[in-house]
Amino acid sequence: MDNLTHTFIGWTLARAGFDRFGPWATPVLLVAANLPDAEVPLLFGDKAMYLAYHRGVSHSFLGFVLEALVVSLVVCGIAWVRRKREPESPPPKFLAVMFVALVGLLSHLLLDFLNTYGVRPLLPFDGRWFYGDMLFIADPWSWLILGAGLLIGTRAGGVVLKIIGTILVLGAFSVMAYGFRNDVVSQHVFFAWIGLAVLALVVNFWPPRGITPSRAAWSGLSAWTLYLLMAFFASRTATARAMEVYLLNAAPPQPIITSSASSAPAAPWRHTVVLQTENELFVYAVDEISGTVEYKTHLRRNLDCAASPALQNTREYKAWQSFARHPCCECSDGIITLFDGRYRGFGGADWTAFHLPQPGERPN
């Protein structure tokens, strides 16, 4: 997921009760909720390295223990230095800091699991990917729900936080407006989101009596959990509908080996469902609100194109093998294209694709 959502979750958990551990708990949760993505700048510029190592050990259970240990050492080290200057300030307990850091890190894993990119939490012992297929990687509805819970719970004196919140809402609005202009977000979704955002801003500056940061955070977290359950139901139902249409129309139907459901931006009730057989991919667009299932295309997997041992020894092939959920190949004019059906199957270019010369051929 995007780092704004990671930050909102870390902040919400702090407001929901973890801030009782001490004043250090909120910054620890904010850092830990984003820390696994510290790998990203190290991987940019090399597609093979990025696909092979992004969401790798830094996003695994073993990596979380090491990252929580580092966070705890840093926090306790800062507290030790501070205590020399202010002997009356109580130092945080090491195990308490590590526990809070682990909670923030696990929240990162949960959020990254929600989209079709997936996570590998068992590394380095097991490289299996796990996919939630529930939300797009940047989800304005999550921003709105979690952000509203945080802003409404900000005390009257938190003027700076309210201003920051207003800026974030305006930033989210710009993303929704971009999607609306490019026909990614429908008119109804766009104006519904605007109406709820305006309502959140009004309640933000004039909160109801009796609201506390903890209650507001729990309300936001509960609403977001309900939203996830709805997204989960929509995703699984979309896959089942696509399979039903495939079995009714394929002649004859081939056994489905695996499938994926990619949520549309800002519309978790619309999915691109890819059904994978041994030799082909079948792609459907499913809309749970309208109840429609539209056949889009099918792709030949052509895995024989990548049978050369010389090709299989390349970095690009190994990265493709470790990452691709629906691995496919194309051979044309002495070039082999290795791609993933998740991103090629329904519009747009596959940013994960590799274009390699066939062994023994020289590229033009």
Written account of the structure:
The structure is a single chain. By secondary structure, this protein is α+β, with helices and mostly antiparallel strands. It has 13 helices and 7 strands. The chain has helices spanning 3-15, 25-34, 40-43, 47-53, 61-85, 94-113, 140-152, 159-181, 187-205, 213-249, 309-312, 315-323, 341-344; strands at residues 258-264, 267-276, 280-287, 292-300, 327-332, 335-340, 354-357. The strands form 2 sheets. The protein has a 4-stranded antiparallel sheet, with helices on one face. A 3-stranded antiparallel sheet has the order 5-6-7. A hairpin with a 3-residue loop joins strand 2 and strand 3 (280-287). It is globular. The protein starts with a helix and ends in a 7-residue tail after the last strand. The relative contact order is 0.10. The mean pLDDT is 85.
Spatial ordering of strands, largest sheet: 1-2-3-4
End-to-end Cα distance, whole Å, is 39 Å
Spans of at least 5 consecutive residues with low confidence:
none
Helix content: 40-55%
What is the mean predicted local confidence, pLDDT? 85
**What would you report as the Rg, rounded to the nearest angstrom?**
23 Å
| Main beta-sheet annotation | 4 strands, antiparallel
Number of helices: 13
Backbone shape? globular
Structural class given helices, strands, pairing?
A: alpha+beta
N to C succession of SSEs: HHHHHHHHHHEEEEHHEEHE
DSSP, total strands: 7
User: Could you tell me the strand content as a percent range?
Assistant: 5-15%
